[in-house]
């Protein structure tokens, strides 16, 4: 991969989802909501909305669309919570709904990627580094975001779930409703396109710098 691109993808990602635990830490909230404690839904949102908003931002590349997607995701969750199968991992079910919402919104919006300035990270820039190193890193990060925004929706979803959200191939395949081999192929194609995109735009100048 083009130098720095993999590091940027890793830096852009959230902590990988843990392996399915014996007891889902969110299941008690689901049970409370089902029993009529509607106020527990606010607790559920507080525990998960940061991840859902970040996922929607990466999928859609626009702050306002991401907020709309998160709102629609939780509306769908509230309406269909009784269909959730206890014993499964709730966060995976939630992410599946969010991905579907993002795909719906992306189809309505059309293929045009959002402006780069709308792709800033939620957390801000917290990585300590020298001035020159910081300039190069942020330049690569901007290019990676542009490249991800330009990917076909299916490849973007596979890359976001696999490389940025840290899901396993099998879990990403279940969320996207495709075979694991398809996710691997789409993610590999997406990485190659991101690499090529960055390489084209990071060609050294005659002075030896990109």
List the defining traits of the structure above:
single chain, 210 residues, mainly alpha, Rna Polymerase Sigma Factor, Chain: A, elongated
Structure description:
The protein is mainly α and 210 residues long. It has a single domain, classed as RNA polymerase sigma factor, region 2, helix turn helix motif (Rna Polymerase Sigma Factor, Chain: A). 65% of the residues lie in helices and 0% in strands. The chain has helices at residues 5-12, 27-34, 40-60, 63-80, 90-109, 131-149, 153-164, 169-176, 180-201. The radius of gyration is 18 Å and the shape is elongated. The chain starts with a helix and ends in a 9-residue tail after the last helix.
Q: Outline of this structure?
A:
The chain is 65% helix and 0% strand. The protein has 210 residues and is an all-alpha fold. Helix 5 (90-109) packs across helix 8 (169-176).
Number of beta strands: 0
> What would you report as the Rg, rounded to the nearest angstrom?
18 Å
Strand content: under 5%
CATH homologous superfamily annotation? RNA polymerase sigma factor, region 2, helix turn helix motif
Q: Count the helices. How many?
A: 9
Q: Quick check: average pLDDT?
A: 78
**How many structural domains does the protein architecture include?**
1
Q: Might you state the CATH topology name?
A: Rna Polymerase Sigma Factor, Chain: A
Largest sheet: none
Global outline: elongated
**Poorly predicted spans:** 112-127
Give the name of the CATH architecture.
Answer: Orthogonal Bundle
Distance between the termini: 16 Å
